[in-house]
Amino acid sequence: MITIRDIDHVVFRVHDLETMARFYTDVLGARFEKYQEHVDLYQLRVGNALIDLIPADGKLGKLGGPPPGRDGHNVDHVCFRVDPWDEAAIRAHLAHHGITDVEVVSRYGADGEGPSIYLTDPEGNHLELKGPPWPPTKGD
């Protein structure tokens, strides 16, 4: 039996490395961790996981075939658990970066039903920011 604990890393093939790296560091709070020059791989840390950015026209990126576009993605979405969850602060932070068309919806995640905000990165990858489960209601 295999027991998966959490996400180790996610890899995005990208057109504009600088814009994508800036989005993940400035908007979502990732921090640069490592550049692996021999495969042209940029690694950003988010919590205990990594977001890997590979230029689609680079050494490793070319192995994946044509790059994804606005109308075709190779990933539906990636969900990042946000802790602590402060809806007002998250909305204000996103608005500061020009992301204003957001709403909180209730979705079921690894910890149960709770708040989620959906957005896209500069190259159209769909992302979910996931909060903690809602508190139990009387009778639960």
TrEMBL record:
Give me the ranges of the annotated region Disordered: 115-140
Alphabetized Pfam families for the sequence: Glyoxalase
Question: What range(s) does the VOC domain occupy?
Answer: 6-132
> Which PROSITE patterns does its entry note?
VOC (PS51819)
Q: What is this protein called?
A: VOC family protein
Q: Which domain of life is it from?
A: Bacteria
**Source organism of the structure:** Sphingomonas cavernae
Name the InterPro entries on file: Glyas_Bleomycin-R_OHBP_Dase, Glyas_Fos-R_dOase_dom, GlyoxalaseI/FosfomycinResist, VOC_core
Q: Which SUPFAM superfamilies match?
A: Glyoxalase/Bleomycin resistance protein/Dihydroxybiphenyl dioxygenase (SSF54593)
